[in-house]
Design goal:
Residues 152-161 have a biased composition (Polar residues). The protein is of the alpha/beta class. It is built from 28 helices and 22 strands. Helix 10 packs parallel to helix 16 and helix 17 (432-458) runs parallel beside helix 20. It binds a DNA duplex through residues 220, 303, 305, 307-312, 315-316, 319, 372-374, 494, 509-512, 514-515, 542-543, 604-606, 622, 624-626, 663, 676-679.
DNA sequence: GTTCTAGAAC
DNA sequence: GTTCTAGAAC
C-alpha cells in the first residue's frame, strides 16, 4: 500500500476518507505502527452543506444526485462515531464550521519539518456531563471513566503516547493539553500556578504561565534576521532560568518562517531547555482556540503611539482584543519608546480574555530599520541591536513582574470550576493593583518617549538619536504635550506642512519623508543610493514598478514636488534628466529590449522632487493597483521633456492633479486596450507587442535603443 | 467561494 | 509610498 511505504520512507501521509466509525479507522491506524504520530481531523460540518456539496460534485464515483445525496449523507451521519484518543490517535481536531476547517488547514500547512503539534482533543463540542463532573477525578485517578475523551491522554492507554511524549520534550509542551498526567500532578502541587477551566465545552488543564511573543522588528521594521535571532536566543537564554516554571514561546504566523527556524537552531545550539522555550507557528491572537496553546500573556509588537491599526501583529492583537485593549492601554500610557515595554492587564470582557484566556498584553517596541517608516535607524545596527536587546529585556522583565504579582497573591483555591460561561482565564494572574503599579513604573520610563513626540513636532530629524534627546526633556513640559497626544499627533506630530511659499498647504504624512531624508543625508543611506552628486541623488526605487525603476532626486530644500518647480530650477531639471539618461544608457547596454520613460508625478506621494526613470515593461510584483498603473500611464505622469518645456515657456509645470486619473479605466499603454482589473491588465501587458502610441514617441518621450526603433515603435 | 479593489491605517 | 482587510464583484 502506498501509504504504508510512504510512512516507511519517513514521509507524512494524509488519508482523506469518510472513516465514520471506529472499525473503519482501525485499519488505517494500524498502518502507522508505534513510531508514527496519528492525528485525526474530524470534519463534522452541517448536513446541509454536505448534501449540497455532494450534489455539486459531478465527478463523484457514486454519482450522487439530489434527494439521493441527501439520503446518503443522512445515513452516513447517523452511523457516525467520533474518533477518540483511545483508538490510537495522539491528536484529534474537530471542525464544525468552515472556519474550523480553515484553521486546521492553516495549522497543518504551517508546520515545518521540525514542528509538531500538541497531543489531545481539540475543539470537540458537547462533551458529556460525566466528563464535566469528572475533571477532579481525572486529576486524582489514573484511569478515569471516559478518559478517552479527555485531553491529556493517559500514556498507558495510548499506543502513540510515547511518541507524543518524546515530541513533547523536543519542543516543549506546546499545549498544556499534552501534559502527561504525571506532569499535571506535579503542577498541581504548586497551586499558584495551576488553573483549569472549560471553554466552549473543552476541558483542559492549564498550569504553566506562558508568554507568547512575536519576533520584534523583523517584519515591518526590517531588522536583519540573523542579528535578530541571535538577540532573541541570547535574551531568552538570559531570562528563561529566572522564570521558574514559566515558558516563553516565539510565535510566527507564517509558513516556513525564517526567523523561527533560525531561532530554533540557535536555541538548540545553546541548549536552551525546550520545555521552557520553544517556537510556535500560529496566529498569536488564536493560540488557544486555534492551536491549543494556552498563553496567559502575549506580547504585542506595538507602535510608538500605542495605537491599533497598522499591520501585522499590532493590528491583529488590537482587533482580536476588541476596544477593551485600546482603552486599557490608553489609561496607562500614551506612547512607548523603542526598547520599552508596557504591561496592560486585559479586561475580562475582552474577547482575547474570554476566548484565548489571555490575562495581560505586554506592548513592546523594537528598533525600526525601515527607511519607509519614520524614525528609522539608518542601518545603524550598533544602536539597533542595543535597542532590540533592551526591548526583549523589557518584555521578559515585564512578564516576570506579572509572575511576581501572581505569586504575591493569596493562593487560589484548588477547586476547579467548570462551565463554559466562566472565563477563568483571568484568575491566574488577577492582581491588577500591583500590575498597575508596575505599569506606572513603565509609564515613568515612557516619559522618555514623550520627548519623541516633541521631537516629531518641533524638529524632526528622522535619524535623531532619540536617547540623547530624551535626557534633555523636562517632565513638566512633557506632561502638557502628553495630555494631548491623540489629537496632537494627528494634527501636527505626524504630518508636516511643506514650506510652500505659494500658500498651498500640502500636508505630508509621516511616511512620506523618506526621500527627503535621503536627499539631505544620502551618505547615511548607502544601501539604497547609487549615485551622489552635489545637487542630485540617484537611488533604486524601493518598490520598483518595472524591471528598471530609478528615482533621480533633487537635493534642494523646499523643492517637494512638481508644484514647487519654477524657472530657477530649470538647470536642475535639465541635469536630473541628463543623469537619468546616463543611467538609461547603461541599462540599454545590458538589455537592448528595454524602453524607458522619464517623468514626474503631478502630485507625488513622497516629499522631495524626484524624477522617475522607469522601463515600460511594468513587469513588477510591486505594481499592484490602479493608482500605480495610472500614475505612470496617464497624463498624471508628466514627461521630463514636457515639464522642462513648460517651465521654460510659462515658468511653471502643468500639473494634472485631477484625482480621477487614479481611478481611470485600465488601458494598455501600448495598444490602449481596456482591461477589467489589474491581474488581467498585467497578463495583457506581459504579451502586448503593439507599437507605442505616437504621442509618446514624438518629442523623445520614450527612450530606447536605436536597434529597437522599427520593431516596437511607430516610425512617425 | 474566490478574486479583487478601495479605504484606512501607518 | 505600503500593508491590511472588509466587502464588492465575479
Amino acid at each position: 500500500m502506498s501509504a504504508a511505504s510512504a510512512l516507511k520512507e519517513g514521509k507524512s501521509v494524509l488519508i482523506d476518507r469518510c472513516n465514520i466509525d471506529r472499525e473503519q479507522r482501525a485499519d488505517f491506524l494500524k498502518l502507522g505502527g508505534s513510531g508514527v504520530q496519528k492525528h485525526a481531523v474530524v470534519l463534522d460540518l452541517p448536513a446541509k452543506l454536505c448534501i449540497s456539496r455532494s450534489v455539486k460534485r459531478t465527478d463523484h464515483e457514486g454519482n450522487l444526485q439530489g434527494g439521493k445525496a441527501a439520503a446518503v449523507v443522512n445515513r452516513m451521519l447517523q452511523k457516525k462515531e467520533a474518533p477518540k484518543l483511545s483508538e490510537g490517535f495522539s491528536r484529534i481536531t474537530f471542525c464544525y464550521i468552515e472556519k474550523d476547517v480553515e484553521a486546521a488547514i492553516n495549522m497543518y500547512s504551517a508546520l515545518g519539518p521540525g514542528d509538531t503539534l500538541s497531543s489531545g482533543c481539540f475543539g470537540q463540542k458537547n462533551p458529556e456531563a460525566k466528563i464535566q463532573l469528572g475533571i477532579m477525578k481525572f486529576l486524582k485517578k489514573v484511569d478515569p471513566p471516559g478518559k478517552d475523551r479527555l485531553v491529556g491522554s493517559n500514556s498507558q492507554n495510548s499506543p502513540c503516547s510515547k511518541t507524543a511524549e518524546e515530541k513533547d520534550s523536543d519542543l516543549g509542551r506546546l499545549g498544556n493539553h499534552s501534559a502527561p498526567l504525571e506532569h499535571i500532578h506535579q503542577d498541581k502541587k504548586d497551586s499558584a500556578n495551576s488553573e483549569s477551566a472549560t471553554l466552549s465545552g473543552i476541558i483542559s488543564v492549564d498550569s504553566v504561565p506562558t508568554l507568547a511573543f512575536p519576533s520584534l522588528s523583523t517584519a515591518d521594521f526590517h531588522f536583519n534576521l540573523e542579528k535578530a535571532s541571535d538577540i532573541i536566543v541570547e535574551k531568552v537564554g538570559e531570562f528563561v532560568t529566572k522564570l521558574g516554571n514559566a515558558r516563553l514561546v516565539l510565535v510566527d504566523l507564517s509558513h516556513g518562517s525564517k526567523i523561527l527556524s533560525l531561532v530554533r537552531s540557535k536555541a538548540a545550539q545553546k541548549n536552551i531547555d525546550p520545555n521552557k522555550f520553544f517556537t510556535f507557528v500560529g496566529d498569536i491572537t488564536r493560540l488557544y482556540s486555534g492551536g491549543g496553546l494556552c498563553c496567559n500573556v502575549i506580547a504585542n509588537a506595538s507602535n510608538w503611539r500605542l495605537k491599533p491599526g497598522g499591520g501585522g501583529v499590532n493590528a491583529a492583537i488590537y482587533s482580536a482584543a476588541g476596544p477593551e485593549l485600546e482603552s486599557a492601554t490608553k489609561e496607562i500610557a500614551a506612547s512607548l519608546a523603542p526598547g520599552k515595554a508596557l504591561i496592560v492587564p486585559l479586561p475580562s470582557t475582552s474577547p482575547l480574555s474570554v476566548k484565548e484566556r489571555v490575562t495581560h498584553v505586554i506592548h513592546v517596541l523594537g528598533p525600526n530599520m525601515n527607511p519607509q517608516r519614520p524614525n528609522y535607524l539608518n542601518n545603524d545596527y550598533v544602536k539597533g541591536c542595543k535597542i532590540l536587546r533592551e526591548a526583549y529585556s523589557s518584555l521578559f522583565e515585564s512578564f516576570a513582574a506579572i509572575l511576581r504579582t501572581k505569586k504575591s497573591l493569596p493562593q487560589e483555591s484548588n477547586e476547579i470550576s467548570l462551565g463554559s460561561q466562566n472565563p477563568l482565564g483571568r484568575n491566574c494572574f488577577d492582581s491588577d493593583q500591583k500590575v498597575k503599579r508596575e505599569a506606572v513604573d513603565e509609564c515613568e520610563m515612557n516619559k522618555k518617549s514623550k520627548s519623541l513626540l516633541k521631537e516629531v513636532r518641533h524638529h524632526v530629524s528622522h535619524t535623531v538619536d532619540q536617547k540623547a534627546n530624551f535626557e534633555t526633556e523636562k517632565p513638566e513640559r512633557l506632561e502638557g504635550i502628553l495630555g494631548k497626544t491623540g489629537t496632537y499627533a494627528k494634527h501636527s506630530g505626524d504630518k508636516r506642512d511643506s514650506r510652500d511659499e505659494t500658500g498651498s498647504k500640502k500636508v505630508w504624512g509621516s511616511w512620506s519623508q523618506a526621500l527627503y531624508q535621503i536627499a539631505m543625508h544620502p551618505e547615511k543611506h548607502s544601501k539604497d543610493v547609487i549615485q551622489i552628486l552635489d545637487d542630485i541623488v540617484v537611488l533604486n526605487d524601493l518598490y520598483p514598478k518595472a524591471r528598471k525603476h530609478l528615482l533621480v532626486l533633487a537635493r534642494v530644500e523646499g523643492l517637494d514636488g512638481l508644484a514647487d518647480v519654477c524657472k530657477e530650477h530649470l538647470p536642475l531639471l535639465n541635469k536630473m534628466q541628463e543623469v537619468g539618461l546616463k543611467w538609461v544608457e547603461r541599462f540599454l547596454n545590458e538589455d537592448k529590449s528595454l524602453i524607458f520613460r522619464l517623468g514626474y508625478h503631478s502630485v507625488p506621494s513622497m516629499r522631495q522632487l524626484h524624477l522617475h526613470v522607469i522601463s515600460q515593461d511594468f513587469d513588477s510584483k510591486h505594481l499592484k493597483n490602479k493608482k500605480h498603473w495610472n500614475s505612470f500611464t496617464t497624463p498624471f505622469f508628466r514627461d521630463s521633456v514636457d515639464v522642462m518645456e513648460e517651465v521654460n515657456k510659462h515658468g511653471k509645470a502643468i500639473i494634472k492633479d485631477d484625482e480621477s486619473f487614479h481611478s481611470m479605466e485600465l488601458r494598455c499603454h501600448r495598444c490602449r486596450s481596456a482591461h477589467p482589473n489589474i491581474p488581467r491588465l498585467k497578463t495583457h501587458i506581459s504579451k502586448c507587442q503593439a507599437p507605442f502610441p505616437n504621442v509618446l514617441v514624438e518629442n523623445g518621450r520614450l527612450v530606447f535603443s536605436p536597434d529597437h526603433l522599427n520593431k516596437c515603435v511607430h516610425s512617425s
